[in-house]
Structure formats: C-alpha cells, structure tokens
Amino acid sequence: MRMKEKIQALLDEAETIKFSTVEAVEQYRIRLLGKKGELNDLFEAFKQLEPAMKKEMGVALNRLKTAAQTAVEQAKEAFENQGGVAKETPDMTRPVETGLGHRHPLSLMREEIIDIFGKIGFVVWDGPEIEDDWHLFSALNFPPEHPARDMQDTFFVEKRGGADDVALRTHTSSVQIRMMESQRPPIRAIFPGRVYRNEAISARAHCFFHQVEGLYIDKNVSFADLRETLLHFAKEMFGADTKIRLRPSYFPFTEPSAEMDIACTICGGKGCHLCKHTGWVEILGCGMVDPAVLENCGIDSKIYSGYAFGMGVERMANLKYRVNDLRLFSENDKRFLMQF
Ligand code: PHE
After folding, report:
1. CB-defined site of ligand 1, < 6 Å
2. In a 10 Å sphere around its CB, with 0-12 CB exposed, 13-18 middle and 19+ buried, how is residue 202 labelled?
3. For atom 9 of ligand 1, which residue has the closest CA?
C-alpha cells in the first residue's frame, strides 16, 4: 500500500474506532502510538521521501497522530467515568434504598440515663454551652487560683480576667447553678449536655464530651439518699446485681465528696484489663452540695440540703457497649454507627 493510502486508512480507523474494553484502548495505543507502532514506522518512511512529497505527507501524518491520541484519550476518559461498564438507564420504578438511620450510641445512652432518673422524679433542665465565670466556677466555690480555671483545661471565649471571663463550659454543674438561681426547692433535676476541655485528642481523651449531672435539693436530704439513688441507677443501668462502692474524693462544690465505682462489668470484680485488676471501675463523681453553693444561689442552707452527682456519657457507653476509643463517637463512621 502506498503511504498516502495507508495514512488515510489509519485516519479513518482513528476517527471511527469504538472500544469495548479498557484493554482494547491500550492495545490500540501501543499499535498506533507505541515505540514500535505504526506511526513510528510511518515517520521513519517519511524521512526517506522526496522533498516534494514531504509537505503533503507531513501534514497527513500529524493529522493521523492527533486523531489517534484523541481517540485514546476520549476512550480512557469515558471508561473512567463509567467505571468500565456501559452506563445503564436507571430503573425509575425501583424502591429507594435509603434505609432507616441508627440512633447514635451517645443518644441511646443519654436517653437511657434520662429514662432511669425520670422514673424517680428527676426532670431535665438545660443551660448554655458558653458560660460566664460565675456559673462555671465562682458560684461553685472554685477559689480564684483553682487549676481548673487554667488555660490548659478551659477553652476561653473571652479572657477578660477573673469574674468577667467567658468560656465553653467545662462541666454541666453550671446548669445546677442556673436552676438553683431560678427555682425554689424542692429541686430534683438532671442536666445532660456537651462539655469542652482543652485536652489533646486521643483514644482516652477528647476536647469535648458529654455529661449528665443531677441535683436534689430539699429539706433533710442526706448522704444515704444520695447512695440509694445512685445504687438504684447503677442497678437499672448495669443489671440488678451490680455492686457499687463510694470512695472519698474532692470537688470544690460538694462536701463531703465521693467517687462512685461499680464492680467491673467485664470480670465482675475478679480483675481484668478494663478495671486495671482492681475489680472496680469509676463511673461518677458526687457529694452533698456545699452550703456555700446553696447560699450563692439564694437558698437558705439552714433549711435546705442536697446532693449532686455527675457522670460522663461516653464513659457509660464505653462500659455498656465496650467502645474503647473515644474518637469513634464523633467520627460519623457508618460502620461504627450501624452497630447500634
Ligand atoms: N462536675 C464534676 C466533673 O465535671 C462532676 C460532679 C458533679 C461531681 C456533681 C460532684 C457533683 O467532674
């Protein structure tokens, strides 16, 4: 075949060719544009031509090259867009497969806690996540130099100094103050909400998490009432034979203060990695509301007494669902969420 006809034939092919597979595109590319391909042969032959022929053939050869390159690029692009299969017409009559969503484990946990306390007369009370120094610290008896006010623990929104500071709440105890300021005893409420602390994010710590705190203020409220209420809660939450123990602790706003442990939910008290071989895991902080806190809120501490407690919702979920990385709760990974 003369060179001219050969080029024309290849040009016709390049302009009309259809590929059924990605492999076919690649084979065509190698055959035409590869190092030992047809175009290379033609360019070699071109060098031997008479100068008079060169102009016409040169133009034709370049046209062929461009056409072959275009055919390859367009075919590759089409396969990438379709994922390699010819596009099907969607079936418009097919039922939509969105599926129902799942409750987030933290929502499940919060609802369960609210439910348990709701049945024994605790109402839910809400408050702001951006708080002033008074509700966050001062009214709760934190001395001015208390480390919780330090920049390391608290995200300050505005650091004006001392009593004028504004911060993201570090605990929901601030809502206790708001309720005591606005309601007269008897008060029996729980305070679910998100709290923020300036901590590096890891499997065991996060810069935000969730708490449910509780408050009961009335005449003659005693530590025994606190213990019975928390025992009831632990049994409802973790099973009827759950054992609890209270250890002395310290919080600026309660006196006396305690931390409550439950017998380890994995080993039942024998000792394992979860309870660090002590048989017990801590689940909440609690205590009798310090009379100074009552007075700060205009409640007569000679007439009224009360208890308060606070627990982490993530911690409860960890114990109940055995989630061992806090970050999972806020990553929105469907593979995690689908399990609840
Ligand atoms: N506010 C405490 C905390 O964030 C928990 C707590 C609440 C302790 C109420 C005692 C009484 O750790």
Report:
1. 171, 173, 213, 251, 254, 285-287, 308-310
2. exposed
3. 309
Cα 312 to ligand 1 centre (Å): 9
In the chain, the N- to C-terminal Cα span, in Å, equals: 72
pLDDT in tens, the chain (340 residues): 688 899 999 999 999 999 988 889 999 999 999 999 999 999 999 998 888 888 888 999 999 999 999 999 999 888 887 765 555 677 888 887 777 778 999 999 999 999 999 999 999 999 999 999 999 999 999 888 777 676 568 899 998 877 788 999 999 999 999 999 999 999 999 999 999 999 889 888 899 999 999 999 999 999 999 999 999 999 999 999 999 999 999 999 999 999 999 998 888 888 888 788 999 999 999 999 999 999 999 999 999 999 999 999 999 998 888 888 889 999 988 889 988 8
Q: How far is the CA of 310 from the centre of ligand 1 (A)?
A: 4
- Classify strands 123-124 and 187-196 as parallel, antiparallel or unpaired: parallel
> 290: CA distance to ligand 1 center in Å?
13
Long-range CB contacts for residues 104-108, cutoff 8 Å, separation at least 24: 104/329, 104/337, 104/340, 105/317, 105/321, 105/323, 105/329, 105/337, 105/340, 106/210, 106/313, 106/314, 106/317, 106/329, 108/317, 108/340
Mutation probe of ligand 1 site: the residue of 171, 284, 313 with most atoms within 8 A of C-beta: 171
**Cα 173 to averaged position of ligand 1 atoms, centre (Å):** 7
**Tokens 């890891």 appear where?**
202
Q: Is the dihedral of CA 196, 197, 199, 202 positive or negative?
A: negative
Alpha carbon of 136 to ligand 1 centroid (Å): 12
This prediction has a pTM of: 0.71
The H or E element spanning position 310 is strand 305-312
**Residue spans of alpha helices (H) in the chain:** 3-16, 22-33, 38-47, 51-82, 105-118, 133-136, 173-182, 223-238, 291-296, 313-321, 334-337
Whose Cα sits closest to atom 6 in ligand 1? 310
